[in-house]
């Protein structure tokens, strides 16, 4: 009998990209759905007429992912280890106003929560090295502590390289 394609029971890893560094876990919820939880530092940029801020801000992410092409990949003899496949997900992102590592002093972040539907791909090379990319557009809600604006369009475009334990 043919092996059923399934996401891994639990994965831990670290990733980096142009815009930050993150540690993550993916836990199996069903054969095709994993819950990714992640903490890390995202890059932040802000330019004004007299300065440019560059910094890193903390981020917490929860992302249920549906890996929709695992059966097809397995049938073609392609690698599905470490959840190598294409996914659709709902990226839930929390940016707390805890700290900012920045080139400017006394900088803060407007706390926000974003909901971003996404499409992504993840591939494993060797046993541990991963490449991941994805894109999505959603909405970010801001804390009323610092701004009168309630929110804004949120775009998530990522390109990451990582190591899975």
Note the main attributes of this structure:
mainly beta
Characterize the structure shown:
This protein is mainly β. The chain has one helix spanning 70-75; strands at residues 10-17, 20-28, 33-47, 52-67, 85-95, 101-102, 112-125, 129-142, 151-164. The longest helix has 6 residues, at 70-75. The protein is elongated. The mean pLDDT is 91.
Walk across the major sheet and give the strand order: 1-2-3-4-5-7-8-9
Helix content: under 10%
Beta-strand percentage?
over 45%
Please give the radius of gyration in angstroms: 18 Å
N- to C-terminal distance: 30 Å
Q: Could you report the average pLDDT, rounded to the nearest whole number?
A: 91
- Quaternary state of this entry equals single chain
Q: Figure out the total of helices.
A: 1
User: By helix and strand content, what is the structural category?
Assistant: mainly beta
> Main beta sheet, described?
8 strands, antiparallel, barrel
- Along the chain, the helix and strand elements come as EEEEHEEEEE
List the helices and strands and how they pair.
Blueprint: E1 10-17, E2 20-28, E3 33-47, E4 52-67, H1 70-75, E5 85-95, E6 101-102, E7 112-125, E8 129-142, E9 151-164
Antiparallel strand pairs: 1-2, 1-9, 2-3, 3-4, 4-5, 4-6, 5-7, 7-8, 8-9
Question: What is shown here, in short?
Answer:
Helices cover 4% and strands 62% of the residues. With 165 residues, the protein is mainly beta.
